[in-house]
Amino acid sequence: MVVRVLPDFLVNQIAAGEVVERPASVVKELVENALDAGADEIVVDIVDGGRTLISVIDNGCGMNREDLSRAIMRHATSKLPDDNLQNITYMGFRGEALPSIASVSDMTIDTYNGTDENGWCLECNSGEIKPSAWQGGTRIRVQNLFAKTPARLKFLRADRAEMMSIVDVVKRLAMARRDVGFTLNNKWRFPKDQDLLERIAAVMGDDVVGQMLPVDTKSASSNMHLTGYISVPTLRRASSVDQFLFVNNRPVQDKVLVGALRAAYMDVMHAREFPLCALYLNIDPSAVDVNVSPAKTEVHFLEPNHVRAFIIKSLRDVLAQTLNENISQNIVTPENDAHTGFMHFNIPSVSQSQNWHVADRHNTTWMDKIFDSKPSTGAKPFEVDLQQEDAPTTEFPLGRAIGQIGKKYILAQSGDNLVIVDQHAAHERITYEHLRKHEIKTQPLLTPIVVNLRGEEVMAILSIVDELKQSGLHIEAFGDDAVAIFEKPADWDMDWGAVLRDMADEVRVNGHSSNLNEKLHLKLANYACHHSVRAGQVLDLTQMNALLRDIENTTRGGECNHGRPVYKFIPLTEIDGWFERC
Fold this sequence. Notes:
Blueprint: H1 8-19, H2 23-36, E1 41-47, E2 53-58, H3 65-71, H4 97-102, E3 106-112, E4 119-123, E5 128-132, E6 137-143, H5 150-153, H6 159-176, E7 181-184, E8 188-190, H7 196-204, E9 212-218, E10 224-231, E11 236-237, E12 243-247, E13 250-251, H8 255-264, E14 274-275, E15 277-283, E16 288-289, E17 300-301, H9 304-319, H10 323-326, H11 350-353, H12 366-370, E18 400-405, E19 409-414, E20 417-422, H13 423-436, E21 442-452, H14 455-462, H15 465-470, E22 474-477, E23 482-489, H16 496-510, H17 515-530, H18 541-552, E24 567-571, H19 572-578
Parallel strand pairs: 1-7, 12-15
Antiparallel strand pairs: 1-2, 2-6, 3-4, 3-6, 4-5, 7-8, 9-10, 10-15, 11-14, 12-13, 16-17, 18-19, 19-20, 20-24, 21-23, 22-23
Helix pairs in contact: 2-6, 8-9, 13-17, 13-18, 14-16
């Protein structure tokens, strides 16, 4: 077989197959070039989903004649001032985008650097450069995309579908750079220097207003800083379309970050639902490798487990705020109230001082075995000391109970709001958080459980032994194709072979596994669900108020373990509107 050196036009078309997958890829590369050129206003125009025309105009620094002639040469770039690939601070750096796009389209570049006597125009097909009347920045016009490669053209989807992908690309870049103004087809506009919450609402929709929680955490042990916003658990989507993740202001689709986001929401949202987020991770460029994919959408972290743990803890701390800590900003309070929030009093925890636990129906349960400390039992449900009741004038976040409706919901009034609380969801969260405070009780095994695995599965499991130990599972290697379980969570009888194989598959794909934690969460959630106040159970006012006080001081108290809302606020002004009293 003869070794052949491929001609340049074919090399460029092969590179285009990696870089230019569809019109959205062209838009991404051209807009990133505009950002690297220092532009703060970018205008994108699309015709026929990008197959007829893609036009990108920016007010960046522009190019002189010599730089313009080199711009369409392969591996020619202004983004690497030196040969250090470990310190990449630009969006692009490969020098493949423009020659790849030119090889599969009719591309024209007009540019002006502000110092030459005139602008310059490059016809990429012929390579001819001639003077131009263009003034200010750069304009790139890509026409007849894939006309030179009909086989690629036939794989394009409908114009509407391609346009949706382009909109998504522009939105992600707009979220990455709030200091830049973006305009797409004169329809999607994102003003320059827009407030982050305003841009989030413009990108994700108006339903996010008042439903996003701020994140601002720095790592004490490393140079990591996480900022942005995440949605309250009751605001979710059916897909990950509104999850915007950035590393050093670069939009990425990274398994470590996505896995950390999922793990943080594990006990407040259903696994088939997705939170909304705009999260910005700033990290030392030397600790992250962006040179891992031609599209530059993936990254590799030097210490992925450390990054994942930092993000999970940061987000869980935000989600763990109690009602007393974050409710005042969402409630309409009386105009004559001089306080910015609610007055806080030293309210004893109902679960600790008022015997808020449902009586144990059995002498022993698996929960008694799996946890070192057994929850209080034997008391009658809702045994409340009437002397604990505060004066009627006390203002609480969830107000004071005024009744029960449908034997399911507690009605209360707080300020100028009607409050509706799901009694089962509220007590379910209280019970779940109480169980989580206990440490997992482990059971040493006299005879280890040996699980036969493939060699690659053994290596995957051994890479997370420290994480498994935190979940009560002590595993060691047992030869080259097996592992041995020497200690496991008490009263956990399951098919450990199937569990470990699933975990190994997850580690091989994502670099980590949350399988065991998810199984523990399901056990706790099921126990909390079956040992909490049920819908249909009649409560008196004392019991209702006790439940309200406890949920106010419970972390993640806004949602039950399955992600359902615990309470809702209805302003009295809205009720007035129902009865035309406005």
